[in-house]
């Protein structure tokens, strides 16, 4: 495996680093007030994210994967990996429209009409409109094709009428638009063809009949929501792709192979180093415990394995092969390793490690305490651990059912 980057990739990376060297320090200084950020809640943190995405967009660094004509850079797979790694190394803030840039925008680029692209892409990119993605329902998560929310064409053929419920829709409470999957053929499940009859729509979240209820999470925040639809009218012109193509719209993004988890190995390595520094200052005795030392060494090794696994996936993709089974394996690794790291943190920091952000005495702004509960997410989001294992057992190991 050749670990070196091409001259074009090196130039791409250097341009990004020069941008970050210039723009990131003043930005972080301007938004340094952690206490104020804690009190601003989900929408407060979003203002910082909006400002950072706008800054990135000024340098055309908000959506490098998008085509140039829509404000991107047509980044190649290796540039995409490099981008993720550099952003992780610089510990850049999150962006305002993460879903919009990574998932929704590419779906609109792939499936939207020219009119739809012109209407929606600029607002995603310049962070003037927030977007959410509503796929999951109470009975349709891992088994997404079981979704039941219906969108039925009106008699005059001008709009669809939507009824049903979505759940876990991140940041729906601040979204202007959402990409949703609805069932336009309610008979498909009964026919045993549940992947059929699903259609993608862009929904104006201010439409009458939409009720958004934030869900309070284990972290204390309300990042995601239930979304209820009561006879909501969605214009025919807001359908993305033809009727029945929703499954493909939701799966396809620009037709480019993705290499997942590219930045996570770097972020986790940085988090481990930061944790050890904090522990040395706050609770040095814990680091003399041989069992703790073994856990640290094991974590370090696992993080390095993850990095190499991702490099192997990239190497395959660059040769025109699928990043398989490395990509689902890396997702599995990420789920485990980030949980081990979160648990190690509370064990080495002792009781003060549990103090949450905003409270007096919180270590590193309470990040480790929050991380301990937040990291449960990595075993669920982007495909739960058990489902990843099923995929690997089925398709890579070809185990019998
Ligand atoms: C932080 C966060 C943000 C999210 N944001 C969004 C969003 O913006 N939009 C959106 O649409 N969704 C969102 N989701 C939802 C996410 O996509 C679902 O949680 C995920 O698809 C799992 O579905 P579920 O929660 O219904 O769990 P289920 O699918 O019901 O799974 C429950 C448990 O059963 C296990 N299980 C399920 N099927 C199998 C099987 N076949 N074999 C073995 N075990 C199985 C799972 O591994 C899991 O442990 C978010 C989730 C999280 C945690």
Q: Roughly how many Å apart are the termini?
A: 34 Å
State which percent range the strand residues make up: 5-15%
Small-molecule binders here are: flavin-adenine dinucleotide
Widest sheet, order of strands? 1-4-5-8
Q: Name the CATH class of the largest domain.
A: Mainly Alpha
Number of domains: 3
Helix share, percent: 40-55%
Uncertain stretches: 253-257
Element-by-element helix/strand order: HHHHHEEEEEEEEHHHHHH
Q: What is the structural class?
A: alpha+beta
Largest sheet: 4 strands, mixed
**In CATH, what is the homologous superfamily of the largest domain?**
Butyryl-CoA Dehydrogenase, subunit A, domain 3
Please name the CATH topology of the largest domain: Butyryl-CoA Dehydrogenase, subunit A, domain 3
Q: Based on the coordinates given, report the CATH architecture of the largest domain.
A: Up-down Bundle
Query: What's the total number of strands?
Result: 8
Round the mean pLDDT to the nearest integer and report it: 91
Contiguous helical run count: 11
